Amino acid sequence: MKTDRRVRDAPRNQEWFLTLLPVFPIVLLVMRLWYASRQDTQTLLLLVQTISPLGMLSAILLTTVWVLPVVVVGGRLLGTLYWISTGRSSWLVRAARRLPGWVAGLAVVVGVGTWQLRFLPTLMMLSLALAGLTVRERYPAHEELRTTFCYALPLIAAVLSYVLLWPAVVTAFAERDVATAILLTLPPVCVPLLTGPVPAASARVLTHGIAIAMAVFTPFLVGAVVMRAPILPLIALEITEEDSSKVLVGYMVASDDLMTTVLHRDGAVSFISNERLRSKVLCPDPGEVPRTWANLHGWYVEQSVISWLAPVSRRTPADSRCEGRPAAEPAPVSPSPSPSPTPAGTLGAGGH
């Protein structure tokens, strides 16, 4: 009976789940190409043939790297909170215990570098709450450690957060940006509320409900971000015609000695002979229009630490060709008048 019970209680073989991990990125890549081709099969086949998978995968990974802290820190936090509140195990607790502490620490470091400034207080809240719950779980008899990590440290972090972020908070309120103001002010005061157990009757609904919501909505959110990720360089081509020239702005698919293949923003494809090309310029990524001007000493709330600290190349004036207008012709330089020849036998001024 003991042997049968151990066999029955043993965790089932779940290695099949690992085979699903590479499927999601591949599906995202195919959907991104399908979206870029405007659901045209022939255009999709052209993009698959010419686009480098490594380059496209790199662009998508850089776009979705912020998901790692959400999944790791959030999952470990919810699992630990449920265990401390009820003392019972579940699939969420087992998943949280399979995440080592160094993985959670690495996820926090990634979040500090990749999350926007307005989301860093939320990351601090999750990190300190996880640290307090971990201390409660591992050292239940140490009252001093529990007081330090669950009350003193969150209070000090909240005060420092308000002191450092005060200029951005003032700017956010002045700009009437309510969402940014809440993100900068509310999370620090919520840390002490997350470092202790919740009522056992509502613990399962609270923790497992949030975990299931994260598991359901995170793929859709990642997919929406990936659909907007750039996968081709945006260029402007000035093409000569019979007696004029026009500018074509689109995404360069391929270029060789004879022709240049361009994907228009509406999904159409053009094959342009290189003999008709007058000029070619690489256009900047349009990106998203900033929604707020709130900043912390020049660090805008929609910027991450990496984008703020990384050196940026010197910006050049906007090229008219990227706006669909031909390049301005350079002003003709009038030749400088040559000095009149001096008649033979005549000396210049001051000559003797």
Automatic annotation (TrEMBL):
The chain crosses the membrane at residues 16-35, 55-78, 99-117, 151-173, 179-198, 205-227. Keywords: Membrane, Transmembrane, Transmembrane helix. Residues 317-352 are annotated as: Disordered. Residues 317-326 have a biased composition (Basic and acidic residues). Residues 332-342 have a biased composition (Pro residues). This is Uncharacterized protein. It comes from Streptosporangium amethystogenes subsp. fukuiense.
